[in-house]
Design goal:
The structure holds 4 protein chains of 4 kinds. By secondary structure, chain A is mostly helical. Chain A contains 12 helices and 2 strands, in the order ααααββαααααααα. Chain A has a two-stranded antiparallel ribbon. The longest helix of chain A is centred in the N-terminal third of the chain and has 30 residues. Chain A starts with a helix and ends in a 10-residue tail after the last helix. Chain C is built from 8 helices and 10 strands. In chain C, β1 and β2 form a beta hairpin. Chain D is built from 14 helices and 2 strands. The radius of gyration of chain D is 21 Å and the shape is globular. Classes of the chains: A mainly alpha, B alpha/beta, C alpha/beta, D mainly alpha. Chains in contact: A-B, A-D, B-D, C-D. At the A-D interface, α4, α9, α11 and α12 of A face α5, α10 and α12 of D. Chain D: It is found in: Cell inner membrane.
């Protein structure tokens, strides 16, 4: 039963990673932009959610604000900056988006101060559901898993069954072809970028009641998000899903079972340091192993 | 042309004589963490320190002071750079560092020769024991004491079996060691990752272990994450939590919200103490900054006033290091934390309180005093210090 | 004539597509052997397998009697195999001399030199210059490759292959994109090389092929359907149907 | 005199005369700041060797910086505590400790490079990041050596004939090593090896077809660049008398990368200027306001968006393409030679 609960916990962490990674991998796959500022939109979403919910008292209004705020900020940043980076090499993109991170962090500090806000939640949010006989699981975390699932299914439908999805798939394969189809490629890029930012906003909203809403919260997950998309195969939403599940599960199950195991095998001094090192580096170890066996990730977008 | 030259010279002469009249201000290097999510610690300490200076009209202990604040970004190397530059600049009085790892990088340069460092927060064990320094003072606490006091509090509350959690880094390991030193019951340790976001896995383990209570040390954002998830996991209702104040200061309480209700907090500062100095401080701080002070602010304020008392006793003359040191040791000031003196290792000896998060008079959650755990508590390293 | 380079039963598939399907070929020392075939016949894939860039699924490649099927691409030049590329693969930021100097240093196994400047190393530049003269690029020796015209790049491709002093040259469409005059000059240059090297020439320009080749092999859908002298191929009904017919239709 | 030589000399003169200037202005801090610039400049220039000449975008270069520093720190720790390290009582001599640290960096470079070079592109960026993060966590879990708090050193290493504890002498040592490193790198990129490395960046297929194995050259470059960053780490440990795991953290790698781009990719001296600009701006802006990142971000952005070749490119704007001018003059007219038979 504990194992099952830990699996659910892993699933929930995977959901957070997937919400962030799916947008990032699309932006990378279609526009070829390494966007270090992706985490900044997640932070913007969380702040919008918390402050709107505090001001209005409505949990759902906070969610709406998070989506709108992140998307809007994404639109501004895309128009002003990212647009100029499409034809640049990765190095320029890294530096420019890093600059956006610096700027956004300070902007939020100036606007909201350094005190992390609390996200008010409705009564039902703290309730529990009996997922299986004897296994109570909090609604808050189920909601998170649900959001991840919903986005995964939605993305699948979008990409495989809509015209936009067709363009996205085509764009990932061949930029010129999309242009030849008579599609305004600039508008497609803006749309995809803003869509990715809105997903960040959703992640921010989901995370706000569970995590500290603070400056720099984006960078804390950003690197892990990159790990996820590289493990899954850059540019592939399916890959992002697999990567998120792998990294999320390894992290959660590792934390649950590695320390007790090592404690039994080794003297306390060594086992503590060893398990700490192993767990902290777990995502990186997984990534290195995956890349050594499959240098392009598990499910690369282009064969 | 000539006229302007003369005027300029006159101005220069005037200025220099004015300078001689008004004493050259004592410069204080305030190296602290302002950026990063932990930036609010430094912000509070700095703001309280500034408040003390402002209340005296730009002076401390009647001596004009100039406060030079710089952000270490929670990076030891950056702290080291700042202190190196400040020492080259001739600054000989330092304070402000919030975190032990930054302090480790800063302290040697800041205490060499006739330079003084007075800690407003971090108090690592090595500096309290064998490696204690004549010019190093901790006006805050020794790092282990809050955790030892949490152990005492847990004993008092009658807990037999506890799960204790902390991130696996130096301060975290020290925290658990400190707690175990005084706690008499049975403990299970769980180490978390530094900067961990999600604690669901650890919380599931806690539930499985089903202890009487939980002790955890997670400062800043990680602590908010922990408390929020502890609340939403439902554990808060069945398993009480005992934490040092770093895991639940006023700002973290505000960020955590209602789920923090019922948490037992161990602190060296009782925010509701009716001592006049404390009430005046809280009132002034709240009026000026429009927010409630934290324990970091209280310590920053105490540090400023401690420095003020020493400056007063020496008329702002830092050159006689021995005199300044004796004046500091006397600690002749009215601490907002109640009775205050320095132990033999020049670390603060103060009272420790158990607070509980519950609705205050205004209906908002506050840390309300329950009892005093220990009075004039001396840390466990003092005996090893040869000072 | 003993075969210097032999290809036996080579097969290579990409997914469901068979790019090479039972390809067989014999190249004698000193022979100029042309491979012709319609677009998409798998000519470049075949060259890539001989050069070692692509590993065949099945079959054998023999060089001087030695099986080199499993030898990695970077070791084949040392065994006497040099190639040119259909789409020029040059170092655009370097001068022509430097391009050749890199090739000469590589051939001599002296590429692990960390100190002496390549651009002032007469032991590399002098022979480099000689190769440029050979293909008529000497006047442009110190220009950057990025400043060269397409035709000049094709010539530099050839010079680089020559600089490897290999016994077998794999020339992948050296006339690709050349005008009539340039093609004629290239044909002339290749003619001058005849007999000194075993040359495997992939080419679309039929006039050049018929002028140059000792033997011709026809490749259709990855399969070598016919091998013979110029006359035999010209006369072959099969070739007309499979290839020339298409082109002249 | 070509523009390039003027820039070289101007930089050299600035570095050489700085202690005098500092003494004149009574700003001893300047020497300390420029020591830092020299050290970071060396690390950035070594990263440029990979990025600018090998097209190997390493996001884990700080690993070498951290490891170099940590070897110095650990040896100093054992020496000071009179605690033999596997039977060796330790040493404070730079001539022993520094080569040892460089050897460790070379080994790390071999292993990390060999594994990382199996990938390319974004995957290479991420796998180098992964390895440096692993090192970061390993260093952080060395609780015997202070864990996350790092190691404080009591004194600088000793070098015969020099007093490294003297700020000016240590400064000149750092500048001399930086100049030496830059000269070496310049020779390197112009050497036969350098041409292969740069050639791989322009056309890997051609290079393979010439009979060269890419990994051997890239790995060599990876190790050499690692040595440069390792030396910078060694100097940093001596300069700051303090090492901590964040020397190897990804933020440090990112900083180095920013310096390279800011200064100009593939220019070697540019990244040194980039380091100067980055650290200088950080210093100035953070003295001016605690919200310095608010200004720093847009400034970085402007450089990326509008100053395409970085600072060095800005300085060289309008100047002759230096490489060709030099190649021409260096090459005596070739006697008409007989074409090979």
């Amino acid at each position: 039963m504990l194992l099952l609960e830990q699996l659910l916990n892993g699933l929930q962490y995977s959901a957070l990673l997937f919400l962030l990674a799916s947008g990032l991998t699309l932006i990378f796959g279609i526009m070829g932009v390494i966007n270090l500022a992706h985490g900044a939109f997640y932070m913007v979403g969380a702040f919008c959610a918390a402050y709107t919910a505090m001001a209005s008292g409505s949990f759902w209004l906070g969610g709406l604000a998070a989506l709108a705020g992140s998307a809007l900020y994404g639109l501004v940043i895309e128009t002003a900056i990212i647009r100029r980076l499409y034809n640049r090499d990765h190095l320029d993109q890294v530096l420019a988006t890093l600059a956006v991170v610096f700027f956004t962090n300070e902007l939020i500090t100036l606007l909201f101060g350094r005190s992390p806000p609390a996200m008010p939640t409705p009564e039902w949010y703290g309730a529990f559901v009996e997922v299986l006989p004897g296994l109570m699981y909090p609604v808050s975390r189920l909601l998170f898993i649900g959001a991840g699932l919903l986005v995964a299914v939605g993305m699948w439908l979008l990409i495989n069954h809509t015209r936009l999805g067709m363009l996205i798939r085509a764009g990932a394969d061949d930029h010129e072809m999309v242009g030849a189809l008579g599609v305004n490629i600039g508008r497609l890029y803006t749309l995809v970028f803003v869509f990715g930012c809105a997903l960040c906003g959703l992640a921010g909203f989901m995370a706000a009641p569970l995590l500290s809403v603070e400056i720099g919260m984006g960078e804390k997950v950003l690197i892990t998000t990159f790990v996820v998309i590289v493990v899954g195969g850059v540019g592939s939403v399916r890959g992002a899903l697999v990567g998120a599940l792998l990294i999320g599960m390894v992290d959660s199950l590792g934390r649950a079972y590695v320390p007790p195991l090592l404690d039994q095998l080794l003297p306390a001094e060594t086992s503590g340091a060893l398990s700490a090192g192993l767990l902290s580096a777990s995502a990186y170890i997984v990534m290195a192993l995956v890349l050594l066996v499959r240098p392009r990730g598990l499910l690369p977008a282009r064969a | 042309m000539k006229k302007t030259l003369n005027l300029a010279m006159l101005g220069a002469v005037l200025a220099s004589s004015l300078n001689a009249l008004a004493q050259e201000p004592v410069r204080i290097g305030f190296i602290t963490t302002l950026s990063t999510p932990a930036g609010y610690l430094g912000e509070d300490a700095r703001d309280a320190f500034r408040l003390a200076i402002e209340q005296e009209g730009g002076k401390l202990g009647g001596v004009p002071v100039e406060l030079l604040v710089e952000d270490d970004g929670l990076q030891p190397a950056k702290g080291k750079q700042i202190v190196d530059r400040m020492t080259l600049d001739g600054i000989s009085l330092y304070t402000g560092v919030m975190f032990s790892n930054v302090l480790a990088a800063v302290v040697n340069a800041a205490t060499q020769g006739d330079r003084f460092y007075i800690s407003a927060n971090a108090g690592p064990s090595n500096l309290a024991g064998e490696q204690c320094k004549a010019n190093y003072f901790a006006a805050s606490y020794q790092n282990d004491v809050p955790h030892e006091m949490a152990g005492v509090a847990a004993n008092d509350l009658g807990y037999q079996k506890m799960v204790i959690l902390a991130p696996n880094y130096q301060a975290g390991r020290d925290a658990l060691a400190g707690f175990k030193r005084t706690f008499k019951g049975e403990v299970s340790e769980i180490y978390t990752k530094l900067n961990q976001l999600d604690f669901s896995v650890e919380l599931a383990r806690v539930r499985a272990l089903n202890p009487d209570a939980v002790f955890q040390f997670h400062p800043g954002g990680a602590g908010i994450n922990f408390a929020k998830q502890y609340g939403s996991s439902g554990l808060a209702k069945s398993i009480p939590m005992v934490v040092p104040v770093f895991s639940m200061d006023e700002r973290m309480l505000a960020a955590t919200g209602n789920v923090a209700e019922g948490v037992n907090v161990v602190s060296g500062w009782n925010p509701q103490s009716d001592k006049p100095a404390n009430q005046a401080f809280i009132q002034a701080f709240t009026a000026k900054y429009n927010r409630a002070p934290t324990m970091y602010a209280a310590q920053g304020y105490d540090t400023a006033r401690l420095i003020g008392s020493a400056l007063k006793a020496t008329s702002g003359n830092l050159e006689d290091a021995d005199a300044f040191r004796s004046a500091l040791r006397a600690a002749d000031f009215d601490s907002v934390r109640g009775d205050f003196r320095f132990g033999s290792n020049q670390h603060a000896v103060i009272d420790w309180h158990l607070l509980k998060v519950q609705a205050g008079a205004d209906g908002k959650l506050a840390e309300v005093p329950v009892k005093t755990i220990a009075t004039a508590q001396v840390d466990s390293y003092a005996a090893k210090c040869a000072l | 004539m003993s075969a210097h380079l032999s290809i036996r039963g080579l097969e290579k598939s990409f997914g469901a597509v068979k790019a090479t399907n039972n390809a067989n070929l014999e190249l004698a020392a000193g022979e100029l052997h042309a491979i012709i075939g319609p677009n998409g016949a798998g000519k470049s894939t075949l060259i890539a397998q001989i050069a070692g860039e692509i590993r065949p699924d099945k079959g054998q490649i023999l060089l001087g009697g030695r099986d080199i099927t499993a030898v990695p691409a970077h070791e084949r030049p040392r065994l006497g195999l040099a190639r040119s590329f259909q789409v020029s693969q040059l170092y655009p930021e370097f001068s022509l001399l430097e391009n050749l100097a890199v090739a000469i240093a590589a051939r001599e196994g002296r590429s692990f030199g960390f100190w002496k400047p390549l651009s002032r190393d007469r032991s590399l530049l002098d022979p480099a210059f000689a190769y440029l003269q050979q293909v008529g690029l000497a006047p442009r020796a110190e220009d950057r490759v990025s400043e060269l015209s397409h035709g000049e790049r094709r010539q530099l491709e050839l010079a680089l292959a020559l600089a490897q002093e290999a016994s077998v040259l794999l020339l992948d469409e050296p006339m690709a994109g050349l005008g009539a005059e340039e093609s004629a000059r290239m044909t002339e240059q290749l003619m001058a090389l005849k007999g000194r090297y075993a040359i495997l020439l992939v080419e679309h320009d039929m006039d050049a092929v018929f002028a140059l080749a000792d033997r011709i092999t026809v490749l259709v859908y990855g399969e070598t359907i016919l091998s013979g002298s110029v006359e035999e191929i010209r006369g072959s009904q099969l070739v007309r149907a499979a290839y020339l017919g298409e082109e002249h239709a | 005199m070509s523009r390039r030589i003027i820039i070289d000399l101007a930089c050299l003169a600035t570095f050489a005369l700085l202690p005098l200037l500092a003494a004149l202005l009574d700003e001893p801090f300047l020497v300390s700041l420029f020591t830092r610039l020299a050290i970071y400049g060396m690390a950035a220039a070594s990263l440029d060797l990979l990025i600018g000449y090998g097209a190997l975008v390493s996001f884990g270069h700080a690993a070498f910086f951290g490891l170099g520093g940590y070897v110095v720190g650990i040896v100093a720790f054992h020496t000071a505590q009179l605690m033999p390290l596997w039977g060796w009582e330790g040493s404070n001599s730079a001539l022993i400790v520094w080569p040892l640290a460089l050897l460790c960096c070379a080994l790390l470079g071999l292993v990390m490079g060999y594994l990382s070079l199996r990938t390319s592109g974004v995957q290479f960026i991420m796998i180098t990041l992964a390895f440096s993060q692993m090192l970061y966590f390993i260093l952080g879990s060395l609780s015997f050596y202070g864990g996350d708090d790092g190691i404080l050193l009591n004194e600088r290493n000793s070098l015969p004939g020099l007093d490294l504890n003297d700020a000016n002498q240590f400064y000149y040592l750092c500048v001399a090593l930086l100049v030496g490193w830059l000269l070496f790198c310049r020779r390197l990129v112009g050497s036969r090896f350098g041409f292969v490395l740069r050639g791989l960046k322009q056309s890997e297929r051609r290079t393979v077809s010439l009979g060269l194995q890419p990994v051997r050259y890239r790995l060599t470059a990876f190790v050499i660049a690692g040595l440069g960053a390792g030396l910078a780490g060694i100097l940093w440990a001596n300069y700051a008398l303090f090492v901590s795991p964040d020397m190897a953290a990804w933020q440090k790698s990112g900083e180095l990368m920013a310096m390279v781009i800011l200064g100009g990719v593939g220019t070697l001296l540019g990244p040194v200027l980039g380091a100067a600009a980055y650290l200088g701006l950080e210093q100035l802006l953070s003295l001016w306001t605690e919200h310095w990142l608010l200004a720093f971000g847009p400034l970085l952005l402007l450089v990326v968006l509008f100053g395409r070749q970085g600072i060095y490119g800005l300085l060289m704007k309008g100047a002759d393409k230096p490489r060709r001018a030099r190649a021409r003059s260096a090459l005596p007219p070739l006697a008409a030679q007989e074409v090979r038979p």
